[in-house]
Amino acid sequence: MGKVCAIFGGSRGIGKAVAELLARKGCHLAIIARNLEVAQNTACGLGAGHLALSCDISREQEVHRAFEEIQRNLGPINYLVNAAGINRDGLLLRTKTEDMVSQIHTNLLGTMLTCKAAVKSMIHHQGGAIVNIGSVVGLKGNSGQSIYSASKAGIVGFSRSLAKEVARKQIRVNVVAPGFIHTEMTAHLEEDKLKKAIPLGRFGDPHEVAQAVLFLLESPYVTGSTLIVDGGLQLLI
């Protein structure tokens, strides 16, 4: 029987790449995004036996409903991947309070809420694995991304602490921190300038990040860790 995995933010970018990799491994997937149509298109492209759901992860009731639907349609959750996130670049003094709140609610609070719901199910069914998608910006910082950096740094601290809380229940919690990866979020960046700071000399591909996620999902003795996938990035410009 294939494992059940919920992928929040699974309709595009890194989340979609993770979904495609896990589908090839025989997992039954719940593709969750705010836009139901996009989630449905992704789920259909993976073949039969997958579920598409709409959810605003910053709203606890919507998160609860999503997990109820997953349980009802696919069964108990084995894996959770949190790839949903938003970014509102700008210097702190120019950032509106509502943009601060939206980033923290989606990136950090949303991760907390989905993990809380998943852990309840995983404890009942004796084990599971969670991978939260952070960012190298949350580790190294970057001018013009102070709020985004704070939300992603929070994910690292949260995940390390949660890993200690649930380890005795055979639940593992880890973080993947990507660098510059080809996604919609990085499409506006000046790639030729930025890749000079990357020893491998290029932006990464979402599927390369997905390989790191798969490693952490399947590694039985790795928890509370942050795996950096940034091509050896030396600094942020």
Automatic annotation (TrEMBL):
Which residues are in coiled coils? none
Task: Specify the pathway.
Answer: Lipid metabolism; fatty acid biosynthesis
Molecular function terms, GO-annotated: 3-oxoacyl-[acyl-carrier-protein] reductase (NADPH) activity; NADPH binding; NADPH dehydrogenase (quinone) activity; quinone binding
> What is the superkingdom listed in this entry's lineage?
Eukaryota
GO BP, one example?
A: doxorubicin metabolic process
In terms of SUPFAM superfamilies, this protein maps to: NAD(P)-binding Rossmann-fold domains
Keywords (alphabetical) are: Fatty acid biosynthesis, Fatty acid metabolism, Lipid biosynthesis, Lipid metabolism, Mitochondrion, NAD, NADP, Oxidoreductase
| Subcellular compartments | Mitochondrion matrix
State the GO CC annotations: mitochondrial matrix; oxidoreductase complex
Q: Which residues form the Ketoreductase domain?
A: 3-183
| Main localisation | mitochondrion
* Family indicated by similarity: Belongs to the short-chain dehydrogenases/reductases (SDR) family.
Q: Mind telling me what this protein is named?
A: 3-ketoacyl-[acyl-carrier-protein] reductase beta subunit
Q: Which organism is it from?
A: Meleagris gallopavo (Wild turkey)
Q: What gene name does this entry carry?
A: CBR4
